[in-house]
Amino acid sequence: MTSVPRTAVIVGAGIVGAACADALATSGVAVRVVERERPGTAGATAAGMGHILVLDDSPAQIALTKLGRELWDARADRWPTRVERHVCGTLWVAADDEELAGARQRAEVYERWGVASRVVDADELRLLEPNLRGGLAGGLLVPGDSVVYPPNAARVLLDAAVSAGAAVVERAPVTAVGDGWAELADGTRLEADVVVVAAGIATPRLVPGSGLSIVPKKGHLAITDRYPGFVRHQLVELGYLKSAHGAVRQSVAFNIQPRPNGQMLLGSSRQLDDDDPRVDRCILAAMVARGIDYLPRLAALSVLRTWVGFRPATPDNLPVVGPLADRPGLWVATGHEGVGITTSLATARLVADRLCGREPPIDPGPYDTSRLREASTHA
Amino acid sequence: MADASPMRADVIVVGAGPAGLAAAHAAATDGARVVVVDENPETGGQIWRASHRAPHPRARALLAQLERDGVTTLRGTTVFDAVPPGSLRAVDAGGHSVALEAPAIVLATGATELLLPFPGWTLPGVFGAGGLQAMVKGGLDVAGRRVLLAGSGPLLLAVAAALRRSGARIVALVEQADRRAVRRLAGTLWNRPAKLGQAAALSVRLCGVPRHHATWPVRAHAGGDGWLRAVTLRGADGSETTLDVDLLGVGFGLAPATRLAQLLGCELDGDRVATDDLLRTSVPGVHCAGEAAGIGGVDCALVEGAIAGHSAARRDDLALRARRRLRRERGFAAALADAFALRPELRELPTSDTVVCRCEDVAYGALADHRDAHDAKLATRCGMGPCQGRICGPALRFLRDWAADRVRPPLVPVPMAALRETLATTDSTP
Fold first, then answer.
1. Contacts of B179 by beta carbon, 8 Å cutoff, 6+ apart
2. Cβ–Cβ of A305/B384 closer than 8 Å?
3. Per-residue confidence at B50, pLDDT binned at 50, 70, 90?
4. Which DSSP symbol is given to B16?
5. pLDDT tens, B284-339?
6. Confidence of residue A376 (pLDDT cuts 50, 70, 90)
7. Is A283 on the interface with B (CB under 8 A)?
8. Residue B208: left if φ>0, alpha if ψ -120 to 50, beta else—which one?
9. Contact criterion met (CB < 8 Å) for B415 and A303
């Protein structure tokens, strides 16, 4: 497909699908969104934390997360209260001098990319977050990071798309997709100039044979009762990236998020090869122990609920955004792993700019589907 | 994290009301090592809740038996997590974690009062009927206070009688069911001398109390001090009256407490835990008895408890002996449910600004767009607070036909430290 599409079908109304619907509808494309549940109530969007952050583990990751954060910020005045947007910043916690040295290196990277950050020493860390245990070396403060409530953010994006003329079909599972078409469970066949599959971990099942390697990475979260001010920033241990993107089968890392109402979300865990949607008590216990290790007084605070979610993970930790080989009318937008909320708006921007013949603000190459073909020919 | 080794038994009974105590006794007489866990400081459940003066005589008799049977009872201990078939984790009153292991469990988790939201139901001075009775047993002075009891079911009568004995002035007893339906139920009691006796005794104790049928509360009004001052009642004929009161005890019957069963993966049958003749649930090794398996009252709970206890102790032969009594009790339970079935007009009780979820302050109108509990929870926070939908869940089941949302550990809020210790066996069921 070379000309600008007039019609589009988007499969999935999680945060990525909703953002794509908004970006395409406001670009003048006639959009239909099909969602197997209700918008924002399923998949990683319903289960995740909603941390908007710039992540620096590769240049392509920084570029996409930075663009994502900028787009979230650009709509700051338009996010209604129910999105619970709160610019609390991220404080990356260094346990020892080695991690603090790592923090300094990251600060340099952020500086090169024009992202404000500041290394703090042990004393300032205590002032910023008095409930952290003693003996920590310091940290890296990224003040521009924020938190949102993803299910409602997805709805708000979809509402914006609907205002721009998009139609939404709820509780309509898609059974098959192809070049310019999608088929629903009830037999309905939808046709459009382009189909964008933003179905998270369900995407490979819908587009078999595409070389798409997206695996569910299981995660756990626990939410506390309301303790306003117990932590003030999203706190993440600097060892997080090691845990998040390492090759080990399972890992936990300290990651806690203050919600505007005083509740806290405690993460995080990562497990491969586990598609059981039930809470794994062993990994939950390890995750909680990690949290209490960093915040000893957390031990006495009340937990209301725990749950499980699945992140759509790719081998190179980058999302897959673009058309499938030889099927110009069939695009995918998925594989965002744990940063899908941050990168949803950036992904939608890439999709809409490329489809509508505009120059994207960042190079779309690193996220393109072409690398799947390379991977499969080299394999 | 080092973990104390779990307490092991042959049968764990969760809940020390009539069903749980009967189950523990039955299993113990079959030679099983039994542990009973109950969240309350005293055994007896809601119905046999000890007053601040003296324990209930029937509970005392069963407890004495349990002591002779050598049953271990953990009071003030709340189960917050479970993995089938028989691995439980609880917290004691001090917040310490307790692990329990057994090849068989009997769930005797009882019921919660069904509270339907209506304008003013959150005012101070409005209580659940059972909750009000519990507070009086706990020492709340109601002498000379004007109390209105409204809603549905036999519990209202028992509460009215108890409050009256404590010196309260019962302004009226208001039942939503038709008088005819209730009379029909009374007519079925001729072959049940014990129940007939109870009903007669209650009637005597409530002599002189104004009784209304086919009537329900529609609004509670606050006085200048913000406390309850009056309640407006509506009759099926559309007439309204307003009564000045000091306290309102309200309850629309009971809802089976099924969250532990759901966490264990037990199938539900409507709002209750599905069980067979031997009170086995759909999960091997897990039994369920009493109100959680279907609202049936204390006599039904005692029979069910005995069956479940024997069955959990692998004495199905003994369990089967009580089958006829079970059928009889369940027949009565069905008649009871029929007589006190909630009328559809009650679905109109909440207005759009009536708070439905008290924990998260969610108004009924905010739920209008949503089609199930999960969807509503994610969008509005309904049921996300400390009670985790224990109050609004059953209400929304009636108001909107919403099935209960998924249950996740912990079943009750627990200190973070309680989750740090792992269950002795991990979940490995398919």
1. B213, B214
2. yes
3. low
4. -
5. 999 999 999 999 988 999 999 999 999 999 999 999 999 889 999 999 899 999 99
6. low
7. no
8. left
9. yes
Q: How far is B411 from chain A (nearest CA, A)?
A: 8
Q: Which member of B371, B388, B420 has the closest CB to residue A285?
A: B420
Chain-wide mean pLDDT for chain B?
91
Given a cut of 80, is residue A71 above it in pLDDT? yes
Taking contacts as CB-CB distances below 8 angstroms, the residues of chain B near A285 are: 1, 419-422
Tell me: pLDDT of B423 over 50. Answer: no
Instruction: Dump pLDDT digits (tens) for A303-344.
Output: 999 999 999 999 999 999 999 988 999 999 999 999 999 999
Q: Is A297 in CB contact (< 8 Å) with chain B?
A: no
pLDDT value of residue A180: 96
- A296 at B interface, C-beta within 8 A: no
Contact A152 B385 (CB under 8 A): no
Tell me how close the Cα of A275 comes to any Cα of chain B, in angstroms. Answer: 12
- Name the DSSP letter for residue B191: G
pLDDT at residue A261 greater than cutoff 80: yes
Question: Are B416 and A307 inside 8 Å of each other by CB?
Answer: no
Q: How far apart are CA A50 and CA A83, in angstroms?
A: 10
Q: What is the pLDDT of residue B414?
A: 94
Q: How far is CA A272 from CA A149, A218, A251, A306, B15, in A?
A: 26, 6, 9, 19, 38
CB contact (8 A) between residue A291 and residue B416:
yes
The CA angle A200-A201-A206, to the nearest 5 degrees, is 90
HEC assignment per residue over chain A: CCCCCCEEEEECCCHHHHHHHHHHHCCCCEEEEECCCCCCCCHHHHHCCCEECCCCCCHHHHHHHHHHHHHHHHCHHHCCHHHCCECCCEEEEECCHHHHHHHHHHHHHHHHCCCCCEEEEHHHHHHHCCCCCCCCCEEEEECCCEECCHHHHHHHHHHHHHHCCCEEECCCCEEEEECCEEEECCCCEEECCEEEECCHHHHHHHCCCCCCCCEEEEEEEEEECCCCCCCCCEEEECCHHHHHHCCCCEEEEEEEEECCCCCEEEEEEEECCCCCCCCCHHHHHHHHHHHHHHCHHHHHCEEEEEEEEEEEECCCCCCEEEEECCEEEEEEEECCHHHHHHHHHHHHHHHHHHHCCCCCCCCCHHHCCHHHHHHHHHC
B388 contacts in chain A (CB < 8 Å) = 304-305
For residue B379, the chain A residue with the least C-alpha distance is A152
Structure tokens at A161: 């798309």
Any A CB within 8 A of B378 CB: yes
User: Of B151, B149, B139, which is closest to residue B169 (Cα–Cα)?
Assistant: B149
Banded pLDDT at B96 (limits 50, 70, 90): confident
Q: Does B423 touch chain A (CB under 8 A)?
A: yes
Cis geometry, peptide bond prior to residue B284 (ω within 30 degrees of 0):
no
pLDDT of residue B424 exceeding 80: no
Contact A225 B413 (CB under 8 A): yes
Mean pLDDT, range B374-400, rounded to an integer: 91
pLDDT score of B230 more than 70: yes
Assigned token pair, A361 = 């603000």
Closest chain A CA to residue B359: A225
Q: Which residues of A touch B369 (CB under 8 A)?
A: none
What the block records as the tokens of A64 is 């996409």
Query: Residue B426 pLDDT more than 50?
Result: no
Separation of alpha carbons A192 and A180, rounded Å:
5
Question: What number is the ipTM of this complex?
Answer: 0.91
